[in-house]
Write a structure and sequence with these properties.
By secondary structure, the protein is an alpha/beta fold. It has 8 helices and 10 strands.
């Protein structure tokens, strides 16, 4: 499948970035978190946008070059390199092209290289590792088909949100509900913080007193 998935508004992207990956994950029912091994190459990097999925062979990045002929501004390239981290499938040259296209960022179930140059460009990249080793450019794959990374199914057009804490996937159909639930969670936590400032405690706020009593901890 090569059909392009429509982008989402900048207002929505900013809202998702403000809410953050952890809040969204919890608010949508502790669902959609990718592995804690997938982290930004710089802690200040954030991304949010629709997934452009790429199913590729480990150690071969031909499908990335093909995907960049099809991806649209705002897309988040999500590359399933099968967790292989002994080859850097992405580097500074691909980053230049991605930025020229206006892509929103990159998620790699694998490794990248040229990390310092990518950081200098300010292009958000999340990956499982860094490797100076190169790749082949010979093997076929698929774009915009469902992929599975760390037991999480990612469909083309699902929304990816990432920050220092990690990455979360929002099923496209659930986007508005996830945002509403995340805002409600933030409001609840703001109330908790206010009560803590007034002398309350988390055991009471989270209704843990009965459990602590049953376990003879208090």
């Amino acid at each position: 499948m090569t059909t392009h998935i429509s982008t989402i508004s900048q207002e929505t992207i900013h809202k998702l970035l403000d809410l953050g990956a952890a809040t969204i994950y919890e608010a949508q029912g502790a669902f959609g978190a990718l592995s804690s091994q997938l982290k930004p190459i710089d802690g200040t990097m954030k991304l949010a946008g629709p997934a452009f999925t790429v199913d590729m062979r480990p150690g071969d990045n031909l499908m990335i070059h093909y995907a960049l002929l099809k991806a649209k501004p705002g897309d988040i390239l999500v590359l399933d390199a099968k967790g292989f981290i002994e080859a850097g499938v992405w580097g500074d040259v691909l980053t230049e092209q991605a930025m020229k296209l206006g892509l929103g960022g990159l998620v790699v179930n694998g490794a990248v290289r040229d990390a310092s140059a990518i950081i200098a460009h300010g292009f958000p990249v999340f990956c499982k590792g860094l490797s100076i080793k190169g790749t082949g450019k010979n093997q076929p794959g698929k774009i915009n088909e469902p992929i599975i990374i760390d037991d999480v199914v990612i469909n083309a057009g699902d929304i990816i949100v990432g920050d220092r804490d990690g990455l979360v996937v929002i099923p496209r159909a659930n986007l508005n509900v996830a945002i509403t639930q995340s805002i409600a969670r933030e409001q609840k936590e703001a109330m908790f913080k206010e009560k803590l400032r007034e002398g309350g405690n988390t055991a009471e706020l989270l209704n843990l007193t009965e459990t602590l009593t049953r376990l003879q901890l208090i």
